[in-house]
Amino acid sequence: MKRFFVIALCIILVVSFVACSAERPSNIKAENSSGTIPDSITFSDDGIWPDNEYTQGIPTPPGTIGWVMLDSEQENCSIQIDGMTKAQFDSYYEQLLGAGYTEIEKVEEEVKGQGYISIGTIISNGSKSISLAYAESVLMMTIVNRGVDGSKLGFLQSSNLTNVYVNAYSTYDAQDGVQVITELYVPEGEKPKPQFSMVNGMVTITVGDETSSFFLGTAAETEAVGLAVNSKMLGSSGDKGFVVIAGTAYADNAVVGCGSFGISYEITIP
User: Fold this and answer.
1) Other beta carbons less than 10 A from residue 29's beta carbon
2) Average pLDDT over all residues of the chain
């Protein structure tokens, strides 16, 4: 029997803006994540900051480059940065604003039971936009060559825009090992609902001295996403571990077409 051993909740993905509550919809069902990276994505985990049309003019962030996805079909570049403190994120964010980017929207919320603040924001310089999601040492950023005029969104920010939340938890049994469930949704009663069309990202699981990464993806069109990654990673009772989930979610009615999400939490094998 599977046993739950951690549940975490945070605000993340600024597909649209302005959240009121985080009540999880009751009808989310987790489907098995695709384990295959699409042909349109060039994936790299060599730890090098990418030099391409999307990253030109963007300051290199502190921390370690976990992985990079360059998507020729969705026309963006997604990057996970590890080992970034909250102070370093704040400094890097100010550096981006100093480089000519304007804050379109920024939201912060405490992750229940985890003791840290999750941050989601979109910034733009008029020709390029960056979606940022920061959660406890991990920064996820998605860069698109599409600008947003914040002044034209002003009247929408109180009526037609909403936040998307991520709920993540893990289960364990002696046969299947660690399973990670990731859910993306708009809280009950809030509108508009995102028209999700795709999710691309990675789940990185550490148990003891072993670390493995798994592609997190789906192309299902839905208002709420539930994805399960079955790692087959086993451990002994009491072993400590860590889970990092980061990626990009796409929605047809999103401000820039997509948004970053990220969450991290500790686990203990029961």
Assistant:
1) 9
2) 83
